[in-house]
Structures are given as C-alpha cells and as structure tokens.
Fold each of these.
Amino acid sequence: MAEKETDAKTYAKALTSFVENGKALLELAEQESKEGLLQDYIRKKIRIELDQSLLGLIPAGARLFTSMSVKKKKDADELWKRSYQCAELQDAVEDFLQLGVQWDSFLEYLDKELHLGDRIFGQEPQVKCLSPDIPLIDAQTGGTLTLGKYLGRGEKVLLVLIRQFSCLLCRIHLKDLEAHKIALDACSVQVVVVSFGCREGALHWLAETGCQYDMVLDPHRKVYSAFGLRASLKKVLNFNNMLLYAEYVVANLEFPKGLPSIEDDMFQLGGDFVLDDQGRVLFSHCCDSPIDRPAVEDILKAL
C-alpha cells in the first residue's frame, strides 16, 4: 500500500511539473501573440527549434512519459486511474485536464482571429473529378507540367498531399506506402507526392527522405483547395495531438527541422486521394490532423 502511495505521489509530482511548464508556455504565447501582427507571431514564434514556443509542450510531454516509465499517453492514463485514490494525484490530474481546455481554447482563438474557421474544415464540396489542366511544377527539374501527365495511361494515381516539408507524420506515411509497393503495383496505383512548398524546400526534402516517388509542386494550392483542405492551428497543435507527438520523441523519432531560408506553412493539412486514369476520384481522405492518415490497407480496399 505504501509503495502504491509513493508511486501516486511521484505521478502527481511529474504531472504538476508538466502542467507548470505548459502554463508557462501558454502564458508566453498569449503575451507574444498580442505584440505586433498575429501573422508574424505565428510565423516567427511557433517553431520546433524554439524551446519556449507552444511546440515546447512536445518535449515536456516526453519528459512526463519518461518520468512515469511509459511510452504512450494511454499507458500514463492507466497508471493515473490505478492510483486515483490519492488526493494529490487527483488535484494534479484536474490541473492537467484544465490546462488542456485552456490550451485548445487559445488555439481556437487564433484560428478565429486568422479567419481559418470561416469555412468549416472538410465540409466544402469536394470535386468528383480533377481537371487534367491543373498546372503543377516538377520538383526535380523545375519544369512546368499539368496533372494530365499522370492521366490517360490506364493506371490509378494516388495523390499524397503533404503538409510542411518538416512533417514527420507525412514522412512516416510515405515510408508505409513504400513498404506496400508490391500491393500498390498489383492494383496499378502510381503514387505522386504533392507539396504546396517551394522547389528549394522540395529538393532538400527529397534529399533527406530519399523518396523515390514523383513529386510535384502546387504553389497556388489548387489541388488542396479542390479537396477542401484547410489550415488550422487547433487541428495541428491541440493538446491531445501534442501528447501524441511526444510519444514519437519517446520512441527516439526526431522531428525534422525546416530550412531557415524558406517559409513553410505548418498548419496546412494534407490528404490522400486516388484518381482513375480520367481524373475521377475513387478514394478520398481529408486529414483531420497531422496524425490522421489512412492505412494503406484501407486505400487498397477502396479500389
């Protein structure tokens, strides 16, 4: 019994430390967001390399899990439930939950101020067929092309619309697709990676990832818009997501850092879309968060 009580107090101490850290990050963000243009705050102050930015909650979450000897949030939840009779832990969990509410409310405020919520994400009418005339850029050569390059060849085309170049989850998803090459080939599916970013960033991304798929650039986000993909701080940085990102840190997966010489959009969401050789949409998945990518098996089942 004494051992369980000691464990509960240890968990409470770890939670309290995490909450204090999270509150400090949130208070700093609220202060900085009121200084100058909000767009400048978003662009300059929310960066993975800045320990005191909102993204600092990710390593804080990793430290929380490590101090509890767990690797995932669900495992931490289970430990808290087992020891919840401890009043000190109860108070710490309540503070933790309250921080989550405050955190998400601030992000919702930012979305509203930036008018990112003017149109409800995922509710816009999606196209049922993409035009072959959509202009794109070949990431490797810099040459112009149209979507029609990939149509009319008797193959299906899986368009993987990525987020920012430094999105870890996008890279993991593409590795999963590469691991299922035989199954995709058997269904005559060609994978094409689509980015809204610049060519410098694309070349750096290709060199870092070693990705063998064709990559095209959609600088005006015509493909993104056609599928109703929007940007949202809350959908990317909400409290639950930050703790899920922390799981990747605990698993020793490093979040890539963007090139300092380019501007990227951390809050653009992605998706996976399969077209037939006439451009008709056979499968559509609009990501509701960076973590929300379809399983390759689900893509194949839809075909």
Amino acid sequence: MENMTLTNFLSVEEVARLSRVTPRTIRRYLSLNKGPVVTRVGGRVFVQRSHFDEWISKNISSRKAKL
C-alpha cells in the first residue's frame, strides 16, 4: 500500500490552484461527484495526489481555441 503521509494529500485550495479554478468550483465539482476522490480528516477534505493526477488526466480536453 502507498505511503500515506500528509505530503501525499492536497487541500481543496491546492487542488484549485493546480487546476487553475477557484476553490468554490472544486467544492461544486465535489458536491456533484465530478471531482477527484476525497479523504476526510477531522472534518477537512483532502485529495490524494495520485487521485488528483488521475482525475486531471481523465478530464483533459484538447480543443483548438477559437480566435
């Protein structure tokens, strides 16, 4: 099993920063079950880095920008 240290977890704010969206958007995704898998610790929500990476790779869309 993977080593479960705090450095392997991201806060909602860190997920938002890495995703380039607001924390509110991430919370909305989580409430709609469209976000990454979460772990709750003492009422706080965290995302394992590996789950974040998987979620991002599944949700990348490549489209040409319309200019």
